[in-house]
Specification:
- 57% of the residues lie in helices and 0% in strands.
- The protein has four helices and no strands.
Length: 75
């Protein structure tokens, strides 16, 4: 999972949200169906996918899916 498109596929398949490229940079509270439980599920899926730990405080501070993607590829 290196591209934002790969990341969005992961979001769709792992947490079941109907997201596309148009949702990557919008605030998380404007992503259809988004809630805090999705954030935790996504963090778990990302750690499983990347094999690395990702900082929960950093993810909690992310304002968009794009920012979460950046954290995942940086870890």
């Amino acid at each position: 999972m290196t591209t934002i498109d790969d990341f969005l596929v992961l979001v769709r398949h792992e947490i079941g949200l109907p997201v596309g490229p148009e949702h990557a940079d919008v605030p998380l509270d404007q992503v259809p169906g988004w809630d805090s439980m999705h954030l935790l599920a996504l963090l778990t899926a990302l750690e499983r996918q990347t094999g690395r730990s990702i900082s929960l405080p950093d993810v909690l501070g992310a304002e968009s899916l794009h920012e979460i993607h950046e954290l995942a590829v940086q870890s």
